[in-house]
Amino acid sequence: MSDSMYKEYILELYRTPLNKGELDKPTCQATATNQSCGDTITLQLKITNSIITDVAFSGSGCAISIASASLLTELLKTKTIEQAKRITQDQVVSQLQIPITHTRRACATLIHQALMSALSHTP
Amino acid sequence: MRKIRSTDFAKSKECYLDSSATTRKPTILGASAKAVYTNDYASAYRGLYESSEQATAEIEATRGKISRWLKTARQVIFTPGVTQSINTLAYMLEPTLTKADNIIVSVLEHHANYVPWLELAKRTGAQLRTLPLDSSYQPINNGQIDTNTKIIALAHVSNVTGTIVDVQKLTAQAPNAFSIVDGSQAVAHELAIPLCDAYVFSPHKCYGPDGLGILLASEMYMNLRPAVFGGHATTGLNHNTIVFSEGAAKFEPGTPAITAIRSFGRLLDVLDPRHESESIRTYAFTQLQKHVTIHGPKKGCACISFTVPGVPAHDVAQILANRGVAIRAGHHCTIPLHQSLGLQATCRASFGVYTTKADIQKLVSGILYAKALFGGKAK
Question: For position B345, what pLDDT does the model report?
Fold first, then answer.
């Protein structure tokens, strides 16, 4: 097996993640943990008139979970709550554009788990 | 019976460094299981016909083989595995506990020897006390063991740090306690079995079959009331009064793991599945310590856990997997230990009788590549 999972853009997203940090007064937030490895990611959303106006994530994880969190948080900006709710796990995995094994799918979708949990807390 | 050796195994496509999870199997085990299924299979303890009588005789003979192999006079009880052994024991001990009592474990424990006791503490109001580690990763009694300690449950060898726990020293401080030692990681490594009321292990961690556990029971264990009930364990029902079977059968309700027991017995006819492993661990320790942070003592057995600066544990394991090197990453079912060490996840390399220095070199070169890749310096 090659290291096709570790493309340079994935490693770059791990080294310098997008939207990493914490929001001032988020509208909602949720934390997801991968039980098998301990990766923990907290997602925060700022929502104005049903539109996601700002997003950030914090926590720690492997290259795949951090790269996935970077890409999904980018995608979420300007999405409505309804549009965000329709984002599937498969979409999150496919935007990484790398082969994901069964076990690593949990890493790739950890941020999606946090998103669905956060959206369930929207007012 | 001769010592197990690497030539007893088929050639592996992988550099297999995950023997703490389960060992690879000698070819004789597969051949024995096939022979049982193909030629000799029958229910045990029930039939009067020849094949059933043979199954019963072979299962009973296997108890004797295990006793001789481990040089123990304790009662051999077959269980579905270590996790089941400990959970069942927790229910068996429940009537002996009060709110004033405490249960001692160490922070090294695998969840199988931690969660059942935590649950028991919650059910009974007894206190669960966790012994910390000293600087050499050895659990120490910091005054938590006292006269109200009614249960002490300790790993013989840690599945993370490879610490060989000084079990006897700790259990001796709890003379009123029922003592349980989890031998899962120890049994393949030629360690003397400590005195205790229940010593538990699973043969799949010492080159035997999965689906089977073994419990070496003291007299105190044998006098406990069982917690799981059914056929074979019960000889009579008189107006709903249960008459339990004598001996091990009292704790073995239901159809046993017939093929697993018989094939393990046949393996023991030929091989002693225990071996020295300190030398390969010492070699690995020396090779690894230059490049990674090791979380465990220099002297130990079975395994070494480590973190690689700059590379998350799962990515180390993935990159090694891509090179045919099988290690594990995660908390290894020891969240209390990882929390106490301030770690989220570690990588673990663990060793079997087939592990070679070349395997260790392959591990090290994979780690160096992972470091280079994540540091942006891979060629």
Answer: 94
